[in-house]
Design a protein that fits this description.
Main location: cytoplasm
Keywords: Cytoplasm, Cytoskeleton
Largest sheet: 7 strands, antiparallel
Family: Belongs to the CEP76 family.
Helix content: 25-40%
Protein name: Centrosomal protein of 76 kDa
Distance between the termini: 73 Å
Organism: Callithrix jacchus
Length: about 650
């Protein structure tokens, strides 16, 4: 296969870089000297090329080089100009996972060269080979490109050694096909968002740190290469406490023909910070004025949940409108209801708080929420609202309370016919809102609300913020005519746009794209099912019972599990008749069939089994006694983006009377 000259030149350069990195030339010189000393006869004047290659093969040099230069088979295939470039990842084992680097584009090569001072893990013992241990994973996002490091064992000095090749492009200016020069790149203010996740031995994830790396210092460095020491701070209540340090090296590829002076780079960054600070100051002044006007309408408004700002994981106050943006899921999600199901299966966990004193507020940036795979109700509502906006719906996040005055956030969509629909992001349930009229006489029958919401203080999306200024903030009597300023006090859309529009300020975290699931649904379903069979058999053995599995009955449970997930996604029940008919045929006359379905959003079989045993009905099936008892269990894992999954399990038994 022939290569274009620029590809051949690029390939040679990459191979040369790798050989230099491995110090192959030095090792060849050593072997040459050693061979001449040991093997060259006195009457021989020179070594042949064959003799030298044999010596290199014998000492494993050629094998080492071929292992390191591990090219994928499609590495030199031409791509269509319109096809998106795959992110190129470098790491210690394989220098070139992909070699389809476009020589007309500019790349930033970011290397993470170890960590230190992670003092929380100072006493962490060295893991034994094969031992399961807690791990750190570093997740990166830059201009619609996402990367994830290999998990490394948690330690005081974690062994991070990963590299990521980030494409630097400026498609918004229409010159996405041209190689960006130093001046153009200096105007690209997007930071590299780095999120550090800890995964414990049970698979539970914790957000350790969230950091925005300003990479443009490399533009003023000699040869376009610079090394940085990044101090990671904690999150939430620990946002002022250092959790560790990462050593990072940045390098431009291809090398810059002309670097900028460090003074020019620093001046540009200072100007951006100044403009951002001024915009944020003006918005704060406007927000205070808006709040004063809102309180003048009715003093009791002071007790309503009107949330204009919210703290992110780094403890920074940001306008709530900046947490929402139209988000397209590509081909990963097909419908708004499927999007609601995806958000629902992401785990729910309130922000951790040290000691008492009520709920700790923490609205996570989208990358931190997705990488952690769980978050609070506000995180779920912000993501669902963003996805519904991406599907072209008029969606808003609602902030209010549930029963007993517990603060809560959910999503609302406004139909073109005036229909108001509430979406509960934690369950995927949808509710049609029909307002009760407070002016009706007491004898008049009012529609009883099915939703769990009690009060509502404000609604917002990426462009609008409206405070509820109706006499009562009760949801059941609320009228959602958002254009009526006597019922909803709006904020200036221009003011919101000045700090929340994409690119408005450099402090605005960019939204990452969703990633496809890496979970193999069939393999995972089988693994969990085998583990559950083993756990059931052991449990029954402890009770002095034998266990007989009925494979055919287990298989017949599959349609029911598929039907349950379909119903959760579409709110339509289907296929139940066929399932019931199959079970009636499979169970002998006079025998009893019992089944217990249950749903989880995690894949830990032991934890799921412990939860199932807490149900008296499930325990009755698992511990069933009698003649001709046959047990069945079926597991079906349904995968969603970001490796989120819905796990359905059904235990069943048939026995003689």
């Amino acid at each position: 296969m022939s290569l274009p000259p620029e590809k051949a030149s690029e390939l040679k350069q990459l191979i040369h870089q790798q050989l230099s990195k491995m110090d192959v030339h030095g090792r060849i010189r050593e072997i040459l000297a050693e061979t001449i000393r040991e093997e060259l006869a006195p009457d021989q004047q020179h070594l042949s090329t064959e003799d030298l290659i044999k010596a290199l093969r014998r000492r494993g040099i050629i094998d080492d080089v071929m292992k390191e230069l591990n090219f994928v088979t499609d590495s030199v295939e031409q791509e269509l100009p319109s096809s998106p470039k795959q992110p190129i990842c470098f790491d210690r084992q394989s220098t070139l996972k992909k070699t389809n680097i476009d020589p007309t584009r500019r790349y930033l090569y970011l290397q993470v060269l170890g960590g230190k001072a992670f003092l929380e893990h100072l006493q962490e013992p060295e893991p034994l080979p094969g031992q399961v241990c807690s791990t750190f994973t570093l997740c990166l996002h830059y201009r619609n490109q996402r990367f994830r490091s290999k998990p490394v064992p948690c330690a005081c000095e974690p062994d991070f050694h990963d590299g990521f090749l980030l494409e630097v492009h400026r498609e918004s200016l229409g010159d996405g096909t041209r190689m960006a020069d130093s001046t153009t790149m200096l105007s690209i203010s997007d930071p590299i968002h780095m999120v550090l996740i800890k995964t414990d031995i049970f698979g539970e994830t914790t957000l350790v740190a969230s950091y925005f790396l300003e990479w443009r210092s490399v533009l003023g460095s000699e040869n376009g290469v610079t090394s940085l020491t990044v101090e990671l701070m904690g999150v939430g209540t620990e946002s002022k406490v250092s959790v560790g340090i990462l050593n990072i090296k940045l390098e431009m590829y291809p090398p810059l023909n002309q670097t900028l002076s460090q003074e020019v780079v620093n001046t540009q960054l200072a100007l951006e910070r100044q403009k951002t600070a001024e915009k944020e100051r003006l918005f704060l002044v406007y927000a205070k004025q808006w709040w004063r006007e809102y309180l003048q309408i009715r003093p009791s408004h002071n007790s309503r949940l009107v949330k204009i700002f919210a703290q992110d994981e780094n403890g920074i106050n940001r306008p709530v409108c900046s947490y929402v943006k139209p988000l397209r899921a590509g081909r990963l999600l097909d419908t708004p209801r499927q999007a609601a199901r995806f958000v629902n299966v992401l785990g729910y966990e309130r922000a951790p708080v040290i000691g008492g004193g009520g709920k700790q507020e923490q609205w996570c940036t989208l990358l931190a929420f997705l990488c952690r795979n769980k978050g609070d109700c506000e995180d779920h509502a912000n993501l669902l609202c963003s996805l519904l906006l991406g599907y072209g719906l008029e969606a808003f996040v609602c902030v209010g309370t549930k029963a007993k005055g517990v603060p809560h956030a959910w999503v609302m969509t406004c139909g073109t016919d005036g229909t108001i629909t509430f979406w509960e992001s934690l369950t995927g349930h949808r509710y049609i809102h029909k307002p009760a009229s407070p002016d009706e006489p007491p004898v008049a029958e009012q529609p009883k609300p099915l939703y769990p919401y009690r009060t509502i203080g404000c609604v917002f999306n990426h462009q609008m913020f409206l405070g509820n200024c109706q006499p009562s903030d009760a949801v059941e009597t609320c009228v959602f005519d958002l254009n009526d300023e006597s019922k909803w006090k709006p904020m200036s859309e221009e003011a919101i746009k000045s700090v929340c529009a994409p690119g408005a300020t450099t402090s605005l975290p960019p939204f990452p794209p969703l990633c496809a699931s890496t979970i193999d649904a069939s393999v995972t379903s089988n693994e969990i099912e085998m583990q559950l069979r083993l756990l059931v058999s052991e449990h029954r053995k402890d009770l002095g019972l034998t266990t007989v599995w009925e494979d055919q009955l287990s298989y017949l449970l599959s349609p029911a599990l598929a039907s349950y997930e379909f119903e959760r996604t579409t709110s339509i029940s289907a296929g139940n008749e066929e399932f019931q008919d199959a079970i009636r045929r499979a169970v002998p006359d006079g025998h009893t069939f019992k089944g217990f379905p249950i749903h989880f959003v995690y894949r830990n079989a032991r934890r799921a089994f412990a939860t199932c045993l807490r149900s008296p009905f499930c325990e009755e099936i698992i511990c069933c006694r009698g003649d001709q008892v046959r047990l069945a269990v079926r597991v079906r894992v349904f995968t969603y983006p970001e490796s989120a999954c819905a796990v359905w399990i059904m235990f069943a038994c048939e026995c003689a009377p």
